[in-house]
Amino acid sequence: HPLRLRALRRLPLAFGWMAKRPIPREITDAWLRPLLSQREIRRDLLKYLRHYNKGDLLAAAERLRSFDRPALVIWALEDRVMPPAHGRRLAALLPHGQLIEIADSYTLIPEDQPGELARAIRQFIRDTP
Question: What's the whole-model pTM score?
């Protein structure tokens, strides 16, 4: 399979735009194993990709305006897949939303900045009644 080759894993269509730093092979293997080994998962992914509707996503996002609990949105400042402006808009939709932007990371904040992510979550839990 092509994603077994390290160089291909760093391409934008693989994980290259998702993580700023190389992800250990055992991690990406664990992520990909179900997709590569289970036909049902491939079927469901293809179904989702073929029927993705931006309008449905935007309508679902609008419903967040009625979420009346504290919510934490954590976003990467250097995200190449989901621009920081999207995180800001998401946090603004939530009446009690709080945005924390993480530097020196792409989309996969848990891989690029696990310590910063953990600190942000701990602080939110401490500060939220």
Answer: 0.82
